[in-house]
Design goal:
Shape: globular
Radius of gyration: 22 Å
CATH topology of the largest domain: Adenylosuccinate Synthetase, Chain A, domain 1
Distance between the termini: 19 Å
Number of strands: 20
Strand content: 15-25%
Bound molecules: guanosine-5'-diphosphate, 6-O-phosphoryl inosine monophosphate, magnesium ion
CATH class of the largest domain: Alpha Beta
């Protein structure tokens, strides 16, 4: 039995949704354990695209149950809209196969207001958040003034908590940010209006995981964002507000660390990043444009163009260490087709010295110079390859070199966005 965690090894959008969808065919449960609808996970099956922001990427497999655990921050209306969209396509999203932990914190309108108000005021030092209220919701969780999904069954408590939260938020919104204050009763009325549809989904996620494990089923834990957006270990302050490393699969779902048996890091064959922050291997030339256009590198959540660059194995090695990857899934190898030379960043140079690790002082990563190794590219279309040996020799050499540099084996290679375009080794 394998309890597998899927983690984005870079700055998000590595193709986690595709890998989770593919692996969930054999899983009884798929669990989201952190983040919220800042995530956009894309799945493509026989030409039909599904983008999921909150609902776990196992939902397309009829027999797989999908759970949203305590570590997630959930926007109630986004959840219901996403469920409705799936239901309209004939996908079962009934509470029998979709659940939300009572401990999951809710994103309310004031969280989105504050997210956007702060970004607007940051001028010059914008984080480039998704504007979905993620940071302010996690702040309230830490400040112990958050509203949890379980509160939907207690309208008196919920109203009181919203009034209390807005005492402070409205002062900030009105005085500092010059935004319209929010009426606590309206905020409470609006969320309580959704309660009859939401409460049937409330469940004891830990118990459900326990029971599934006791029956011997495989369980998948779906990470969002990427390691270098981690609130502690990422490129602070240009990060998200949750822990994105594999360790948080435990705290974010209520399972002990000993529960997890496999940890898969997902990396693109190159690197992308949305939003602000350092990105040593970023390409601002034609090669960057080539990757963006051939890889359709536009955000699944905000539609923003993604910044593109060469694969950075300093970043990847840090991810291996922070997460304990047992194996790696490499996606988008097909996008490298027709680049005459492939470059891999193997180390950085900073103030005349070579460094093999990410500098930890804030801001320094923006000033390092990547040291590259060059490898010949490939011209053949690899998008139809179904076995490793079918790949051109230079593509195989690239994969093997990345394995050497990362120190971990690459067990899956994705050569297209379709579910079936995946090479298992
Ligand atoms: P996630 O957030 O990690 O789930 O990734 P996203 O869905 O935000 O972004 C990945 C994008 O790459 C999506 O548009 C996928 O359909 C697409 N994709 C995934 N794997 C491959 C691949 O191997 N080749 C190509 N060309 N596209 C891929
Ligand atoms: P998936 O799961 C890529 C980035 C934002 C911004 C920073 C903080 O699809 O890989 P936030 O709204 O979280 O406060 O924004 O984090 N970001 C992502 N980038 N993929 C994601 O998710 C992301 N989720 C957040 O662009 O730079
Ligand atoms: Mg994404």
């Amino acid at each position: 039995m394998a309890n597998t965690v899927i983690i984005g090894a870079q700055w998000g959008d590595e193709g986690k949704g595709k890998i989770v969808d593919m692996l969930s065919a054999q899983c009884s449960l798929v669990v989201r354990f952190h983040g919220g609808n800042n995530a956009g996970h894309t799945i493509r099956v026989l030409g039909e695209e599904t983008i999921l922001h909150l609902i776990p990427s196992g939902i397309l497999h009829r027999d797989t149950i999908c759970l949203i655990a305590n570590g997630v921050v959930l926007d109630p209306s986004v959840f219901l809209k996403e469920a409705d969209k799936l239901a309209a396509r004939g996908i079962d999203v009934s509470p029998a196969r979709l659940g939300i932990s009572k401990k999951t914190h809710l994103i309310l309108p004031y969280h989105k207001q504050l997210d956007n108000a702060r970004e607007a005021k940051r001028a010059g030092r914008k984080i480039g958040t998704t504007g979905r209220g993620i940071g302010p919701c996690y702040e309230d969780k830490s400040a112990r003034v958050g509203i949890r999904a379980g509160d939907l069954t207690n309208p008196v408590l919920l109203r009181e908590k919203i009034r209390h939260a807005l005492l402070e938020k409205n002062t900030l919104l009105r005085e500092l940010y010059k935004f319209e204050p929010l009426n606590p009763e309206t905020v409470a009325d609006d969320v309580l209006a959704l309660a009859p549809r939401l409460t049937p989904y409330l469940t004891d996620v830990e118990a459900r995981i326990d029971e599934a494990a006791a029956r011997g089923g495989d369980i998948l834990f779906e990470g969002a964002q990427g390691v270098h957006l981690d609130i502690d270990h990422g490129t602070y302050p240009f990060v998200t507000s949750s822990n994105t490393v594999s360790g948080n699969a435990a705290a974010g779902s209520g399972m002990p660390p000993s529960f997890f048996t496999r940890i898969v890091g997902v990396t693109k064959a190159y690197t992308t990043r949305v939003g602000s922050g350092p990105f040593p291997t970023e390409l601002l030339d034609d090669a960057g444009t080539y990757l963006r256009e051939k890889g359709h590198e536009y955000g699944a959540t905000t539609g923003r163009p993604r910044r593109c660059g060469w694969l950075d194995t300093v970043i990847l090695r840090a991810s291996v260490r922070l997460n304990g990857f047992t194996d790696i899934a490499m996606t988008k190898l097909d996008v490298l087709q027709n680049l005459p030379v492939l470059r891999i960043c193997v180390a950085y140079e900073f103030e005349g010295k070579r460094c093999e690790r990410i500098p930890q002082e804030e801001g320094v990563l923006a000033d390092v110079v990547p040291i590259y190794e060059e490898m010949p590219g490939f011209e053949d279309d690899v998008s139809g390859c179904t076995g490793f040996e079918q790949l051109p020799g230079t593509a195989r050499a690239y994969v093997r070199r990345v394995e050497e540099l990362a120190g971990v084996g690459i067990s899956m290679i994705s050569v297209g966005s379709e579910r079936r375009q995946t090479i298992m080794r």
